[in-house]
């Protein structure tokens, strides 16, 4: 996603997700509860969980995931260095494609600062 406007992608995805939530309200409600429970602090804090989600987004090659989870990790106080280490783990697990999406994830983090 060269020269990405990550805020525009977030807005576009939010709009599309709102339409999907209207089309399937029960499933969306369940997914929302799952998301809240998954990120809620427990043994792992919410920042760590968002970094894990970002790593998965990188390995899954999901632009929307990069945008949402880099932004959320930043909101939970993740530093650029933590993002870079997260990218390193994703590259280890996902190889070359994760290197490309890792660069995208770092761009998101930097752009949303």
C-alpha termini separation = 18 Å
Biggest β-sheet: count, sense, barrel? Answer: none
Give unreliable regions as ranges: none
Structural class: mainly alpha
CATH topology: AhpD-like
Percent helix, as a range, is over 70%
Strand content: under 5%
Under the CATH scheme, which class? Mainly Alpha
Task: Output the number of helix runs.
Answer: 5
Order of helices and strands: HHHHH
Spatial shape? globular
**Rg measurement, Å:** 14 Å
> Which homologous superfamily in CATH is the superfamily?
AhpD-like
Tally the beta strands.
0
Q: How many domains is the backbone divided into?
A: 1
Instruction: Indicate the CATH architecture.
Output: Up-down Bundle
Q: How would you state the average pLDDT, rounded?
A: 94
Give a quick precis of the structure.
This protein is mainly alpha-helical. 82% of the residues lie in helices and 0% in strands.
Describe the structure.
The protein is mainly α. It has a single domain, classed as Up-down Bundle (AhpD-like), CATH 1.20.1290.10. It contains 5 helices and no strands. The chain has helices at 6-23, 25-39, 46-60, 63-75, 80-111. It starts with 5 loop residues before the first helix and ends with a helix. The model has no long low-confidence stretch (mean pLDDT 94). Pfam families: CMD.
